[in-house]
# Entry
Amino acid sequence: MIKKKILRLFLLFIFLALSLIIFKKFNKYYSQNDFAKIIILALLASNFFLGFAIKRFSKLSLIFFSYFILIIYSVNGLLVYFDSQNTSEKKIEKILTKKGETFDKRKILEVVKEERLKGKDIYPYVVPREFLKLNKKEIPLTPLPKTIFVSCNEYGTWKSIQTDKYGFNNKKFLNSFDILLMGDSFAEGSCVEQKYEPASLLSNDYQLTTYNIGISGNGPLISLALAHEIKSIVEFDYLVWLIFDNDFYDLSLEKNSNYLRDYLDTNFISNDYFAKIGNKIDFQKKYIEENLESFKSGFSLIESILELKPIIYRINKLINRKELEDAIEYDKKIFKKVFDKISFLYPEKKVIVVYLPETTCFKNRSEECNQRFDEISSFSKKIIYLNFFQYLKDNIVNHKEMYALGQSRAHFSPAGYNQLVKFIYNNIKKQ
# Structure
């Protein structure tokens, strides 16, 4: 009898502990669309509650829990093995090995620490999107200014960039440029050498001086905010905005920020961000240093096993599929407001929006990707819309050559950036 009471008290304790975790973490998991964790925790909590509340279920509760843990970790273990053999790093390493080239297997944190031991003041690349996840009322719109960052590795070696006085990836700053280039990592020129970045190619190969305000992870609202804040600082003739395929999903995170939504208001002028940029430096440095150990890129065997990452990822993917479809519908409205505001901000400028395809557009999403371009290009008659996806389909036989080492879901290769810049230049000449 005493054993049964102890068992029931134990089940009650576990139920209360799980309930507390759900209560504390619910908003975080919900905001991140991490429904799998909510479901798993709720299922286990319900099991332990039934075991406590109904006597005859006490032992069954422990049996269910034991089998549940055994099955879920066994399935997860198989997924871990599969994922470990199919990481982007593994694929890149295999490609480079065939070419007789080496792959730097270090994680980004290892690179940062080793460079710091050599006396270099260097940081892992932390972008505005990271701070959006913290649900802050106000976020930094740029990475740390005048700072060296380790950014990405799609070619076997880690790329580092040095930001200018405003936090952008540029060699120099002038008061006037031919082109203001904005967008996400594709505008920034992620992973390729600096000479292949679109701003460098436009400036060096086509003599169109270009200032880049694109930052990895930026969605439409952060890009709009930067277009707002940069207006009083830089003069230019053309605003070229690179819209990548995932921008249609980025608003699911950005729309939750009132700070960013303010920029949609036609009466909103500015937050004087660049005049106050010094106020953001200490905050960003403190955040990076306090969370330095969390900046681990690539596949982690221990985390994948213990935290059930593969199985949670797949459950969330299934649950969120419908939500992503709804997000596209919602994005249409926000995109129109964004484009209307850009036209309002720069009524005398030539605004060019270039739609960039993700690799799946060439496989099974061709109709969807063209539909997306048709939708956004109908939002404003004041903006010039260019479909780089259609251009590649019409002019490039092997589209894989346009992406880093021909990999799926990768950034453009030097050849891809060259084609993009050529495409932009030829269309500017027509204006």
Q: What stands out?
A: The mean pLDDT is 87. The beta strands are 122-124, 148-152, 159-162, 176-182, 210-212, 235-244, 350-356, 384-387. Residues 309-345 form the longest helix (37 residues).
